[in-house]
C-alpha cells in the first residue's frame, strides 16, 4: 500500500515491491499515481502466491478510507488478512508434507 503526496492511498500487488515502486515513481506504473508523488510504502506483506495477494488486495480496496487508516495504524494484517496466509507445512511421517487447513471463522 502506498501513500501518495496528496494523502490518498493506493493498493496493489507486486512480486518485487522496490522495482514496482521505482516504476510508479517514473510514471510508468498505474495511471492513478501519475503526478501524485512523492510516494511512500506504508504497508507490504508477503502473501505466498499471486492468488492470495489478489484476494488480499480486493479486501483492502473494499475498506473505507477510515478503515484503511485504522488498518495501517494497527501496523499489520490482524484479522483482515490472517485467513489468506499460506499455511505452514507440517511433517507427517517420512518426508511427505501435509498442509494445515485454516478454517474461516
Topology, number of strands = 5
Shape estimate: globular
Please state the average pLDDT score. Answer: 78
Strands in their spatial order, largest beta sheet: 2-1-3
- In percent terms, what proportion of residues is strand? 5-15%
Number of helices: 4
In short:
Helices cover 34% and strands 11% of the residues. The chain has 105 residues and is an alpha+beta fold.
Description:
- It is built from four helices and five strands, in the order E-E-H-E-H-H-H-E-E.
- With 105 residues, it is an alpha+beta fold.
- Strand 4 (89-91) and strand 5 form a beta hairpin.
- Mean pLDDT is 78; it is low at 88-105.
- The strands form two sheets. The chain has a three-stranded antiparallel β-sheet, with no helix packed on it.
- It is globular, with a radius of gyration of 16 Å.
- It starts with a strand and ends in a 6-residue tail after the last strand.
Task: Give me the secondary-structure topology.
Elements: E1 2-3, E2 9-10, H1 17-25, E3 40-41, H2 50-62, H3 65-73, H4 78-82, E4 89-91, E5 97-99
Antiparallel strand pairs: 1-2, 1-3, 4-5
Amino acid at each position: 500500500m502506498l501513500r501518495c503526496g496528496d494523502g490518498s492511498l493506493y493498493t496493489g500487488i507486486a512480486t518485487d515491491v522496490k522495482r514496482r515502486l521505482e516504476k510508479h515513481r517514473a510514471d510508468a506504473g498505474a495511471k492513478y499515481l501519475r503526478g501524485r508523488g512523492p510516494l511512500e510504502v506504508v504497508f507490504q506483506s508477503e502473501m505466498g502466491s499471486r492468488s492470495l495477494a489478489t484476494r488480499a488486495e480486493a479486501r483492502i480496496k473494499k475498506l473505507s478510507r477510515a478503515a484503511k487508516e485504522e488498518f495501517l495504524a494497527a501496523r499489520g494484517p490482524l484479522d483482515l488478512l490472517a485467513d489468506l496466509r499460506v499455511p505452514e507445512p507440517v511433517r507427517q511421517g517420512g518426508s511427505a508434507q501435509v498442509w494445515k487447513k485454516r478454517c474461516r471463522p
